[in-house]
Amino acid sequence: MKMSGYEISKSEFKSLSEFVYKEVGIHLAEHKIMLVRSRLSKRLRDLNLDSFNAYFEYLSNDDTGEEIIMLINEISTNVTSFFREQSQWDFLEHEIKKIELKDKKTLRIWSAACSSGQEPYTIAIFLLSTLKNPQSWDIKILATDISEEILKKAIDGLYTEQEIGALPKVMLQKYFDKRNISTKNGMQLFYEIKPFIKAMVTFRSFNLVYGDYSILPPRFDKIFCRNVMIYFDKETKNAVVNNLSTKLLKNGLFFIGHSESLVTMKDGTLKLEQPSIYRKQ
Ligand SMILES: C[S@@+](CC[C@H](N)C(=O)[O-])C[C@H]1O[C@@H](n2cnc3c(N)ncnc32)[C@H](O)[C@@H]1O
């Protein structure tokens, strides 16, 4: 081991990447070798292991399934934000105006890789501030992620000023409580999602690649699966999209990240409405 990190051989990287692909469907291309080395070196140090070989042994003998999640936390990114990808919220605003004219007053929405919660809480805040009469609606938001650790943060619903970003003051007053919390850097100001918003969201862990979709609710009006499929190869992505699509109601909307696309999907069940937004046929 060197202070700057551990050495990783091509065969060690191959064993790791094959294992990761088998377990979670994430394809680690060869050029990711240095990224894996630098991201996982700290993990090896924490575990007191002296090589990537030893780490592979540890990982493949871990029956709890926790180490693979630690690994994914290190190599994938949890980056997210409130009201990410504004054009999608603009689109949804028009959509909500259309559905308000109909009789059906239920909305089931799934945030399928919710990270630290900003996405599902944005959905809740967006609906409460867009619907004319939100009290008359039965709204349920399911928020899932593979990482138990990130889900804990999501459930806490506590965000720093930096994470809050440029949310308008009125929105902060209506939907967040200010909290001064003691941290290792002294007292720090946080904004906590108010209980009535938290109550609209149910968090649970779910692996989009190997999860059992039959245990989840059968039908959603909208599914957000944004900025997660970038880690999947074509076959995995197609399988995940097919599974998600069977959970969408006819005319339901499917949102992906701005840098993602479904061009390789051939079956035509999801029709492009505008970049990164699809409608179930
Ligand atoms: C970049 S964040 C995206 C958060 C949010 N959807 C957004 O667009 O702002 C990607 C999230 O996908 C989760 N993830 C990675 N692989 C996953 C899998 N196989 N199943 C479910 N979630 C996964 C990660 O834990 C991470 O929180």
List the helices and strands and how they pair.
Elements: H1 10-24, H2 33-46, H3 52-60, H4 66-75, H5 86-100, E1 106-111, H6 118-130, E2 138-145, H7 148-156, E3 158-160, H8 161-164, H9 169-175, E4 176-183, E5 186-193, H10 195-198, E6 201-205, E7 220-224, H11 234-246, E8 248-255, E9 270-274, E10 277-280
Parallel strand pairs: 1-2, 1-7, 2-6, 7-8
Antiparallel strand pairs: 3-5, 4-5, 8-10, 9-10
Helix pairs in contact: 1-3
Bound molecules: S-adenosylmethionine (SAM).
S-adenosylmethionine binds at residues 24, 72, 76-80, 84, 113, 115, 119, 145-147, 150, 207-209, 226-228, 231, 257.
Structure notes:
With 281 residues, this protein is an alpha/beta fold. It has two domains: 10-75, Chemotaxis receptor methyltransferase CheR, N-terminal domain (Chemotaxis Receptor Methyltransferase Cher, domain 1); 86-158 and 194-280, Vaccinia Virus protein VP39 (Rossmann fold, 3-Layer(aba) Sandwich). It contains eleven helices and ten strands. The chain has helices at residues 10-24, 33-46, 52-60, 66-75, 86-100, 118-130, 148-156, 161-164, 169-175, 195-198, 234-246, and strands at residues 106-111, 138-145, 158-160, 176-183, 186-193, 201-205, 220-224, 248-255, 270-274, 277-280. Helix 1 (10-24) packs parallel to helix 3 (52-60). The longest helix has 15 residues, at 10-24. It is globular and about 60 Å long. The structure holds S-adenosylmethionine. The site of S-adenosylmethionine (SAM) has 23 residues, from loops.
Q: What is the arithmetic mean of pLDDT?
A: 92
Number of discrete helical segments: 11
CATH names the topology of the largest domain as Rossmann fold
Order of helices and strands: HHHHHEHEHEHHEEHEEHEEE
Identify the CATH class of the largest domain. Alpha Beta
What is the CATH architecture assignment of the largest domain? 3-Layer(aba) Sandwich
